[in-house]
Amino acid sequence: MTSTMRVFTFLVVCGLALLCGCSSKHYVQGHGDAGSFILQHAIAYGGRPLTTNGLPAIAGDWQYVQDEFGVGILLPTSQYRPVHDFLRAAFGPPSNSAGWAVRDFGVAIMVQKEASNTIVGVYPPMSDEKMARAARKMTDAIEKNRR
After folding, report:
1. pLDDT digits (tens, 9 = 90+) for 121-130
2. Whole-angstrom Cα distance, residue 72 to residue 101?
3. How far apart are CA 118 and CA 107, in angstroms?
4. How many CA atoms lie within 13 A of 129 on its CB side?
5. What dihedral do alpha carbons 142, 5, 107, 33 form, nearest 10°?
6. 67 forms bridges with which residues in the sheet?
7. Under 8 Å CB-to-CB from 65, ≥6 apart: which residues?
8. What is the pLDDT of residues 16-53, one digit of tens each?
9. In whole angstroms, what is the distance from residue 97 CA to residue 66 CA?
10. What pLDDT score was predicted for residue 136?
11. Neighbouring residues of 88: CB distance < 8 A, sequence distance ≥ 6
């Protein structure tokens, strides 16, 4: 598997694990600037932003959930562009269509728009074993949701 495919697969697996696996968890209401929260977690997971100064605030309602695989943030769909612009200002252009890759920035960040939500996933580097656990968690959650 090429490096690009591995990174893309990683982001997809983590994103799906976050979306499906966290459906049984309760999201916590976030407070304050969602951008600062995202940046704090990215840095805590080893992220290397280009800048941390002068970044635009991301105001409004948001929620988050965190587990061993990373943190997921839910914002309204209207926040997709502000979140993307914030991350672009902090980390530069995304590595691929899924987001920012660990190999380029030290942390994986995924941003996507889904129905009524903007979804942001921030993930630390993972071993193959941990990535496999995330995939199993995702598969189990999908199966559980089908019943």
Report:
1. 999 998 888 8
2. 16
3. 19
4. 0
5. -60
6. 70
7. 18, 22, 25, 26, 27, 28, 71, 72
8. 445 544 444 678 999 999 999 999 999 999 999 999 99
9. 23
10. 78
11. 94
How does residue 143 score in pLDDT terms, banded at 50, 70 and 90? Answer: low
Rounded to two decimals, the pTM is 0.78
- The 3 state secondary structure assigned to the chain is CCHHHHHHHHHHHHHHHHHHHHHHCCCEECCCCHHHHHHHHHHHCCCCCCCCCCCCCCCCCCEEEEECCEEEEEEEHHHHHHHHHHHHHHHCCCCECCEECHHHHCCEEEEEEECCEEEEEEECCCCHHHHHHHHHHHHHHHHHHHC
Tokens of 76: 């309204």
- What is the chain's length? 147
> To which residue do tokens 């290397």 refer?
48
